[in-house]
Amino acid sequence: MSKNKKKIGAYWASSCGGCDVALLGLHERILELLDFAEIAFWPAATDFKYDDLKGYGNNELDVTFFNGGIRTTENAEIAELLREKSKLLVAYGSCAHQGGIPGLANMSGKNELFDTVYKEIPTTNNPDGIIPQESIKKDGLTLNLPGLQERVRSLDRVVDVDYTVPGCPPPPELTEDFLELLINGELPEKGSVIAGSKTVCEECSREWNKESIDAFHRPQEVDIDPDKCLLDQGIICMGPVTRSGCDSSCPEVNMPCKGCFGPPSKVEDQGMEMLNSLASVLQVGEEGQALEQEKELLSNLPDPIGTFYTFSLSNSIFGGKVSEGGEND
Q1: Tens-digit pLDDT profile for residues 224-245
Q2: What is the 8-class DSSP label of residue 251?
Q3: DSSP secondary-structure letter at 213?
Q4: Helices 172-183 and 29-36: angle between axes, nearest 10 degrees
Q5: How far apart are CA 9 and CA 266, in angstroms?
Q6: Domains in the chain: how many in total?
């Protein structure tokens, strides 16, 4: 590798792989990146092995984009190794940032997940009830598999993270912003999230009048007014509690914000803050019965946890059924 070029790495942990595709979404600008840097480790795109990574010296990689949550022992091991080998480690995408959609699995313990997938699903043909083992010996050979950890964790719950580029996946513009800051030596203070500092609502063109809501609807169930706030139309939109920087891309095309950029800096728990926002606009009857009526309205949502904590359950105060210590709450 050229001594004058930066060394860049990328890694895919527990996620769908869309973040790796998002890096390629730079299109022709990736050629500009290659003028500045060389790919030193990117298993999803080229034939790199873990031994290649282990061969680098400490801090030899200038920056590594790490996408995905920490679900397996392998994820945790490589996160620690990449932290050791990288000057800058970037939590890239919602799963590395907040645990993401895989974090919803924290509503079940590891044994519950295995029972559901390998024993209880009607289409599963597994009469002996066999579940994956971390190590098994057969015919004199030993097969070792990564262990499934009790809960999904975001990257910063395992190693120190320098910067975060949020999104599911991060839009190319944010990736370009980060790379431009990196190339020009203008990176903000450590720990910064490379996105907006406001909320999605503040960059949305729709008008939010905070009208009273007497029922919730899915987007396909109503004729959506393109100028009116989705919340005013009874559609749950996480815009009020989600960090800006996406140009309100989902609400602008009649889809509610799901919260993939995570909460703004002053919001500790995205789902709880959204419930607080809704409480002020839910249309209820008599004051003495307000709490019960609010509960009834919210209970009509088909998936409250999936609605309010789509991407952030792992890092929420609630955290899911499985706690940080790995025990069922």
Answers
A1: 999 999 999 999 999 999 999 9
A2: G
A3: B
A4: 30
A5: 31
A6: 3
